[in-house]
């Protein structure tokens, strides 16, 4: 999924914002969940993006770890950008290795899409609004007002992560997928 999103996302207007066919999404999800081989290259990139967000939402405790939720939310309250980046890097060290690897690929894809935002209309802010709720959620349910405020904070954090991903994850993030 990430490879396809890396290839097609930068040239797709509204990637992660528009959803694909609900019927196709449901059928593909059922096939993937049952272990059936699926060729996503034959499907709409919007369905693939929806499947990927669904995959992220089903990671137990979230890819950024709900246990670190308060720390993630407070990162942007820190001093200058350098201090924020250092805090983020320290938080990343507390994540399981598999989560860190996945995050590097996710932000490699998002960076590639953002670099062509004039074409696809998905700048860091728009991408963050679409993907942030799939990356982190609080460990316990809350009221709609608190949840709305939380999503705003996480979206700002994800926007910062996209805009600074090369400094956070390293410049090689731009070449994780090699020459596809």
Provide an overview of this structure.
This protein is mainly α and 180 residues long. It has a single domain (1-174), classed as Rho GTPase activation protein (Phosphatidylinositol 3-kinase, Chain A, Orthogonal Bundle). The protein has 10 helices and no strands. The chain has helices spanning 2-8, 22-34, 45-57, 69-74, 81-93, 97-115, 117-120, 124-135, 144-163, 165-169. Helix 1 (2-8) packs across helix 3 (45-57) and helix 3 packs across helix 8 (124-135). The chain is globular, with a radius of gyration of 16 Å. One of its GO terms (molecular function) is GTPase activator activity. Residues 1-169 form the Rho-GAP domain. Keywords: GTPase activation, Phosphoprotein.
Task: Describe the global form.
Answer: globular
Topology order in helix (H) and strand (E) letters: HHHHHHHHHH
| Broad CATH class | Mainly Alpha
Task: Give the structural class.
Answer: mainly alpha
Largest sheet: none
- Indicate the percent of residues in helices: 55-70%
* CATH fold group: Phosphatidylinositol 3-kinase, Chain A
CATH architecture classification: Orthogonal Bundle
Radius of gyration: 16 Å
Q: What separation lies between the terminal Cα atoms? A: 13 Å
Number of helical segments with 4 or more residues: 10
Mean pLDDT: 94
* Regions with little confidence, pLDDT below 50 for 5+ residues: none
What is the CATH superfamily? Rho GTPase activation protein
Number of strands: 0
Number of domains: 1
Percentage beta strand: under 5%
């Amino acid at each position: 999924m990430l490879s396809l999103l890396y290839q097609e996302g930068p040239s797709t207007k509204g990637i992660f914002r528009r959803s694909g066919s609900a019927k196709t999404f449901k059928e593909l999800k059922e096939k993937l969940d049952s272990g059936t081989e699926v060729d996503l290259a034959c499907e709409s990139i919007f369905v693939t993006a929806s499947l990927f967000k669904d995959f992220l939402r089903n990671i137990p405790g979230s890819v950024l770890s709900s246990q670190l939720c308060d720390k993630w939310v407070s990162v942007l309250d820190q001093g200058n950008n350098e201090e924020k980046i250092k805090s983020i890097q320290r938080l990343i060290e507390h994540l399981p290795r598999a989560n860190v690897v996945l995050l590097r690929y996710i932000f490699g894809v998002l960076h590639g899409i953002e670099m062509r935002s004039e074409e696809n209309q998905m700048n860091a802010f728009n991408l963050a609004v679409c993907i942030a709720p799939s990356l982190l959620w609080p460990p316990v349910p809350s009221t709609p007002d608190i949840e709305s405020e939380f999503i705003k904070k996480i979206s700002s954090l994800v926007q910062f992560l996209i805009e600074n991903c090369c400094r956070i994850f390293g410049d090689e993030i731009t070449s994780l997928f090699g020459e596809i």
